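For consistency, the fold was encoded as tokens, as this record shows:
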Amino acid sequence: MPTPILLSVFPAGPGGGNPCPVVLDASGMDAAAMQALAAAYGHESVFVLPPENAATADYRFRFFVPAHEMEMCGHATLGAAWLLRQGAALSCGGLRIETLSGPVRAIFGPDGSVEITQPTGHATEVAAVSAVLGALGITERDLLPGARLVNAATSRVKTLVPLADPARLHRLAPDPAAVGAACAAIGSTGLYPWAEGANGILHARQFPRGSGYPEDAATGIAAAALFHGLGAPSGGIVVRQGEAMGRPSEIRVRPDPGGSGCRIGGRVERLA
């Protein structure tokens, strides 16, 4: 098993961010080996491969959690693109990346920042509200008044649950089995309760469906879903996640000036 490079993606304080193992050359690995590595490290892991079509992409990324392969992973894509730029001292403005969910661009800023693109999102109202509330251990009194639950997605469907305040958000202690059952019933890959805090900052938590761990410290794809669920605000959004886990993280999402979707950005740090 190769030794991956370990990153923390979207950190916003000591011990923050989502850990991400990155294998920069996974050419000799099959799917079973990739999943075994993800299981050994207990985190979403990304594997960098040559593109299937060199005319349209620079790299192909595959993503695994301990339980299965994923079509797309926002923080892993951002982290691997950042690492490729560091290692190769890339002078180009970005990278073209193949994923199972479709093409993604990584855009490099002159200040060393990296953003990744997501396509235009969509959102539909959730009918089985009681199943979601039951899985989270809350009632309608905990919701933002007048709010509705929606399934939103750019690459993967996340269920957006608007809560009245961050304190209620951080008290959540859902049962992972109940979360999985609720997600299966509504066609979602995770519950994403959120609440607005001071200065327009959005606070969120991600409880995934059957990934092999109960909570995610920073979920770029869920933040992109939230951006579109809120109507793609022109000023973008800032999402704080991982606070209840002691892994403070910050994800920034804004409209993509070069397309109809959005861009996800945030800090990356190398751990080992």
